[in-house]
Specification:
With 89 residues, this protein is mainly alpha-helical. Helices cover 39% and strands 6% of the residues. A two-stranded antiparallel ribbon has the order 1-2.
């Protein structure tokens, strides 16, 4: 596996190469990069890839995008692992 094939966003299966190419092509801020590639928009809401997407956006562009970072949101309602795995049925 090459560096470009490394998956950064596991939920949406977005690779490092896709993020770098998109950031360079469109000179994206982190938010724009997220919207163009869907990185950080999966099930985890960016908890695992948010910092990597921010870092790629900052390092791949010539403009100051460091002030526009991504946020993540917790689920609306907490859920127990028993309910998630449907153990009690």
């Amino acid at each position: 596996m090459t560096e470009k094939e490394m998956i950064i966003c596991r939920c949406e299966e977005v690779t490092y190469g896709q993020l770098v190419e998109t950031a360079k092509k469109f000179s994206c801020s982190s938010r724009e990069l997220k919207l163009r590639t869907r990185a950080g928009m999966g099930y985890c809401g960016g908890r695992t890839c948010r910092l990597a997407v921010d870092s790629i956006a900052i390092s791949s562009t010539n403009r100051d995008v460091s002030k526009i970072t991504l946020k993540y949101q917790p689920p609306i309602r907490p859920i127990s692992f028993a309910k998630l795995g449907d153990v009690n049925k």
